[in-house]
User: What shape does this take?
Amino acid sequence: MRRALLLGVAVVVIVASTVLALVLPAAPSGAAASPHITRIFIPAIKTACTTQAGLEGADIGYRFSDDGSLHTLDPGDGSITGLAPGSLQVLNDCLAKYPIDPPQELPHDPYSRNLLYDYFSGILKACLESRVGELPPLPSRADFVVRLYIWDPYRYIAPGRTLDELLDLSAACPELPRYLEPTGAEADATTISQAVAWRAQGDCFAAAGVAYDPSQSWTIDGQTVRIFDAGGAVIASFTNVAAGALAGHSLLNCLRSVPYASVVEPPATAAQRSLLADYSENVVWPCLRSLGFDPGPVPDADDYATVESTRAVDPFAGPAADHLSIEALFRLAAECPSVPDYLIGAG
Assistant: This one.
């Protein structure tokens, strides 16, 4: 199905962003990804928490609590372990800080597997090797995508590492990019402004070496991306084939994964834009600054006179955002939404 996508128009494609694999400088202070704590962390969690509780070497049984964290089998009075109730409380309080994510199966469909392979080969492997040294080799793309071979670097590097080391590694080098987390819940709940979506789209074209400006438009026809000038004439065409990756990534896959479905428009009425001005001053700007990102002076109410002027004072539309990776902007947008839920879709 042919879908024309214009720079100045918010459109719907899919929620995700392989553009993260194109540019990934360090996140701003305070905006690091949350560690993805899996069962391979359990030995390190036990060691850290028994040490904190002064129970090194104690023979303690564990179970999972309702929230997924470890908990001692002892009811807390020492009746099972013979250990001091105070020490058991310290141990359980420590364990509760590290709930274990439930086991999740990686995607099996070829499209997601290709995106995951791009992330593993283009981002995760280099990120981890720069910190821990050589990792097991990646399987071939064919084995990974078609035969569903597994590559699990964290299982390889976890033994012998402390909990703090593993948490730091997981935050710096996430096992999965947010756009391919199996639950999709966090990504689905994240809204972004047009400025962030346009930046992601621009990064796709820049990575492919394509000169692009707002007067142009583009379409996806099957496996082909076509770019049109303002008069509708085709000025470039790119076909997604196995050997035709551009800058290490497919232009088509990159454009398809820009989260246009999450784009929100500023409210249309003057009264609601006034509410947005208050929200920006009292919530968005302080939130962003607390995360180490300064979007510049806080706009005043007059800057929200029209929808177009409201777009112009989007905190992610200024030059400060140009120095961040799109992955970092997505994280900031999730933490500090530029439009609150109660004004989304307000007319």
